[in-house]
Write a sequence for this structure.
């Protein structure tokens, strides 16, 4: 699926995002996050992993919108019980 992140087109699929995050330790959750492979990750961490861009180049809203369009569960704040 074609997703726009920071004005750049990326062709992403949910399995591709899962593969990029496999084995990655989730960073502390402080804001927007998404569930990938049963674990919660900050969307900025996911965005950097799947695009190869610097985190300063995109917003959490860009990544959250793209991940939601792929069918992944996104939240604007971390879930209460991890």
């Amino acid at each position: 699926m074609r997703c726009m992140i920071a004005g750049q087109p990326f062709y992403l699929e949910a399995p591709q995002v899962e593969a990029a995050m496999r084995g990655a330790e989730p960073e502390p959750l402080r804001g927007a996050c998404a569930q990938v492979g049963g674990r919660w990750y900050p969307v900025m961490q996911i965005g950097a992993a799947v695009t190869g861009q610097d985190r300063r180049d995109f917003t959490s809203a860009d990544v959250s919108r793209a991940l939601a369009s792929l069918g992944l569960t996104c939240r604007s704040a971390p879930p209460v019980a991890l």
Remarks:
- The chain has one domain: 2-75.
- The chain is about 35% helix and 25% strand.
